[in-house]
Structures are given as C-alpha cells and as structure tokens.
Amino acid sequence: MTDSTRPMPQMSVTAPTHEPAVKIEGLTKRFGSKVAVNNLTMWVPRGSMFGFVGPNGAGKTTTLSMVTGLLRPDNGRIEVLGHDVWADPASAKARMGVLPDGMKTFDRLSGRELLHFCGMLHRLEQRTVKERTDGLLEALGLVESANTLVCDYSAGMTKKIGLACALIADPALLVLDEPFESVDPVSGQTIRAILRHFVEGGGTVVISSHVMELVESLCDSVAVIANGQLHAIGTIDDVCQGKSLQDRFVELVGGNANVGEGLTWLRKS
C-alpha cells in the first residue's frame, strides 16, 4: 500500500477528445490483503504507441490481464474500442492481439502450425491464414525455423512467434508485455518497424516494459504506475518534463539514492 504520509505526485488525467482505444475507470484488484491495483483510472489514446511502466510488483501485469479479459477485476470498468471487456467480452477480445509475458502456448506445434491454428481460431479463410502466416514468418525472420517445433525455439524466437500469433488476425489493438525481452538487436529493430507500421495504419499498441530507454525512443505516450496507482500519464515530453524517462521514473516512484554506500568492501582501491 502507498505510504499515506508521502504526497502523491501531481498529474493531469484528461479524457482524450476522441474515443480512446482503452478506457479504464476505477479499476481495482485485490489478492487477499494485497491491493495489486487501486482504483486505477486512465485512457490510452487511439492510434498511439503507449508505454506502460512501473517497478516490479507495481500492478502492470495485473492491469493488462484485466484489460485483456484474462483476470476479472474486483471493481471498475474497462472498455476496448467502445466495447466493455466484461459485459461484451467476445466483441472486445476480437479487436485485440495479446502477447503476455511468459506466454504459454501449444509448443508441440511447429511455428507454421501454431500460426495456422491461431488463424483458424479467428475464423479466417484458409487462403488468408496462409498468406498472413507466410508474411509474418518472413518479416520476423522465422522462415528457416517455420517447421521446427516451438518447444525447440530459443527464448527470442518464442517471443517472435508469440508476436506473430498476436498479429495474424489484424487486430485494432496490440497489448504486449515485455515484447523485446530476450530478442536480439536485429530482430528488435524488425519488431520496432512492424509496430510503427501497425500504428501508422491506425492501430494502437500498449507496451509494458522495464526498459525506459526503449519506451522513450519508441512510444509517444506513457503511463507510470506504482503500488497499483497511477503516478503520471501523458505524452513522453509531458511526463519527462525535460529529463530522461529513466530519471523521471525514479523521481516519480522513489529510488534509493544511497545505493552502494554500505558496500565499501567492493572497492579495489
């Protein structure tokens, strides 16, 4: 829980002028006595690359799990492109592509088979599934391993095939939890280009990441969450206030300025 003696940072949470891609109002989730998400209200602008950042245990994954319909909230309301996630889950989920962190999948299928399976789940035509599967495998550098079982993929390859599964139905919203984790720099650059192309085409991307430099360079808007509460939200420039996102993040969530002072034995001279 947030220390009641510590003042909350000032921020502006203004509703967007256009219908948001994601609208969260009064979202709350408890696990026993632990409040993981505490009355969270925020909007994700449509057509944006939106970063969602916070320290470990901040409530990021719990929030995204509720947004994508994987975890039922205790209180609050979530809309995705105008569809209530819990009152009309089929319509909301049909508009989303999701890449959870630590994704579990049917890894006894090959990469090509897994993509085909995902396409059929979305009731795409066979021809469309094949075309999109071929295109995604090519774009993500997975052609040579297309017939390899996913259980034999490296961590980076597994992340890329997971992204392909999220993209195959051509969603309007992508929700990606640590999409660049374990991905090599070349593949990372490819994923960046794909995501930018997706946004340029009118899509919206929500990225949860611990890498502030990545979020600052890739996203145009960002929300900072800690202790299950929103500490800042807005454009990168508005949130950073002339500082790096890394420095602003530490300032907002609190950091230990005395790191290393008790470790004098590490000094070599």
What is this entry, summarized?
With 269 residues, this protein is an alpha/beta fold.
Q: What is the general shape? A: globular
The end-to-end span amounts to 42 Å
Mean pLDDT: 88
Task: Return the structural class.
Answer: alpha/beta
Uncertain residue ranges = 1-17
Number of strands: 10
The percent range for strand residues is 15-25%
Strand order of the largest sheet: 6-7-8-3-9-10
Biggest beta sheet attributes: 6 strands, mixed
Radius of gyration: 20 Å
- What is the helix/strand order? EEEHEEHEHHHEHEHEEHH
Individual helix count:
9
- Helical fraction equals 25-40%
List the helices and strands and how they pair.
Elements: E1 22-31, E2 34-44, E3 49-53, H1 60-67, E4 75-80, E5 83-84, H2 89-93, E6 96-99, H3 111-121, H4 126-139, H5 155-167, E7 173-177, H6 185-200, E8 204-208, H7 212-218, E9 221-226, E10 229-235, H8 236-240, H9 245-253
Parallel strand pairs: 3-8, 3-9, 6-7, 7-8
Antiparallel strand pairs: 1-2, 1-4, 4-5, 9-10
Can you tell me about this structure?
The protein has nine helices and ten strands. The protein is of the alpha/beta class and 269 residues long. A six-stranded mixed beta sheet has the order 6-7-8-3-9-10, sandwiched between helices. Strands 2-1-4-5 form a four-stranded antiparallel beta sheet. Helix 3 (111-121) packs across helix 4. It is globular, with a radius of gyration of 20 Å. It starts with 21 loop residues before the first strand and ends in a 16-residue tail after the last helix.
